[in-house]
Structures are given as C-alpha cells and as structure tokens.
Amino acid sequence: MKEIKAIIQPFMLxxxxxxxxxxxxxxxxxxxxxxxxxxxxxxxxxxxEEGIYDFxxxxxxxxxxxxxxxxxxxNSIQENAHTGNPGxxxxxxxxxxxxxxxxxxERGKEAI
Length: 112
Fold this sequence. Notes:
The chain is an alpha+beta fold. The chain has a single domain (about 1-110), classed as Alpha-Beta Plaits, CATH 3.30.70. It is built from two helices and six strands; from the N terminus they run βαββββαβ. It has helices at about 15-20, 65-80, and strands at about 1-10, 30-35, 45, 55, 55-65, 90-95. It comes from Stygiobacter electus. This is P-II family nitrogen regulator. InterPro entries: N-reg_PII, N-reg_PII-like_a/b, N-reg_PII/ATP_PRibTrfase_C, N-reg_PII_CS. Pfam families: P-II. Belongs to the P(II) protein family.
C-alpha cells in the first residue's frame, strides 16, 4: 500500500478532486487546509518585526491506495494541479505498513 500526500494550490483543488473522483477503485481522500512556505522561505509581513511571516495557503490531499493504483493517482494529481508557476506544490509517496479500520478491526488492504 502507498500513502500519497499532495500539497497543491487551493484554486486547483476542484479540478484535482474531480479528476481523482474518476479513478475507478479510489477508496477515498482526505483534504486539509494548510499554510506554509517553500524554498523562498516565506515573506516577513514587516521587516522590522522578528519572526512574523506571511504564510502561503495551500491544500493537502491524502490518499492511501493499493500499490498498483499509486502511479495513476500521482499522475492525475500532477497533471491536474500543474500551472507551470512557482508554488504548484509537491507530491509525496510513502509505503504504508498497515491500516486498521477502527469500526470493524479489519486490517491491511481490506481496511482501505
């Protein structure tokens, strides 16, 4: 199993979710509103004040899928979140050792 986390521009969220919804077998997604900054280090709101930064709003999408579906999901996110401008985001793919469904105690791929 793979966990896919994608940090994307908020204005691209509807487009990405619409594309993901078309993938057969997709078990579901989690979306969070987040904020932060990338390589640019963030901008200070006021150069005179120390430690106060203007963070950039983003959306985080999290999905756990079977290994064979991971590349399809990654490609869909990449294609639909891409604008070509700085700040388009990142996609992270990690291995999932186990999943436990709290309600039923199902484990592994049955829990997804």
